[in-house]
Amino acid sequence: MPVAPAAVPSQGRLRLFHELHLTSFAREPLAIERIEVQGDDGRVLASYAGDALRRRLVPAVPAAETGDARLLAPGTVRVLHVELELAPTAVPSSLRHIVTYGVAGEPADAQVSAGAVAVGSDGAIVLGPPLRGGPWAAVFDPAWARGHRRVHYALEGRATLPGRFALDLVKLDAQGRIAAADPDVIRNAYGCGEPVLAVADAEVVAVRNDYPEAERISGNGRHRLSAGSGNHVVLALEDGRHAFYEHLRPGSVRVAVGQRVRRGEVLGEVGLSGSGGWPHLHFHVADGPSLLGAEGLPFAFDAFELLGRYGDFEQLGQAPWEPQGAGMRRGERPPDNAVLRFPD
């Protein structure tokens, strides 16, 4: 397990995010039958088998392998992605993982314990809004194969998961549309040009402001890995945490490296520079200033109004969201694919 399990509050619960890495040193393929997640008192918090295990247990490099993800070939690595939802009083101080497996084609009659892993004690940093008003769709689904949650990067001999908690924030109208006219034109998007705000008093430690932006989403094309974030700002927060703002409109960044900013200060504008399917703000927090070489950390917003969510993400930009009427939420992470409004 590369980093300690980290908890973040959401809708009155605590979501505990972590990954378990499995490496085979066997000479024959192994079949993973079941993985249990236990608390420090032995209580089973989650148990994955069959399709549930197949959906969460993926190759370290998804494009490199096909077939049943529960089969662990010699010398290969699988990653189990876990998001537990627990009552605030039920969060354990440590976790243990019990893996039931066998040689492929034979009964799964062996077990191994991954040992106890302490749950991170720092908790989620609570931040101000990165944007004003709304509605904004907070796009995140931990099950997406190419979503931020499951994309590792290897830099300088170290594999990291910077987008573990990342959100893509897309502005909508009341009907759930992304743009006023032709949605393929980037400048037509409701979010394009919206001011991006400092979430805390901080120091600017990285900036890019000159990466070009296409006129149309269909013309955005592919970008080198080092340029996928497009124009960006990185802020050094407290206790070694860093806040990342990506895909900003070219020429819109108003700050420079070394500058001190105050919470609510405008840093730049929403755009679509670099990789992406629609104009949006990519926002995440990590343990270092590297865009791809730092570990993603949990964060929450001090206040937002929860308007609803998209149960079917394919409806984003096509239809209204499902209203929830949950009202103001404080000190929480938005639910997955939520629609929210930040204070003006």
UniProtKB/TrEMBL annotation:
Keyword Transcription: no
Residues annotated as domain M23ase beta-sheet core: 191-286
Enzyme nomenclature, EC number: 3.4.-.-
Chain residue ranges for the region called Disordered: 320-344
Keyword flag Cell cycle: no
Keywords from the UniProt entry: Hydrolase
Annotated Pfam families: Peptidase_M23 (PF01551)
Alphabetical list of InterPro entries matching this protein: Cell_wall_metabolism_enzyme, Dup_hybrid_motif, M23ase_b-sheet_dom
Name of the top EC class for this enzyme: hydrolase
An MF annotation (GO) of this entry: hydrolase activity
PANTHER family the UniProt entry points to: MUREIN HYDROLASE ACTIVATOR ENVC (PTHR21666:SF270), PEPTIDASE-RELATED (PTHR21666)
Protein name: M23 family metallopeptidase
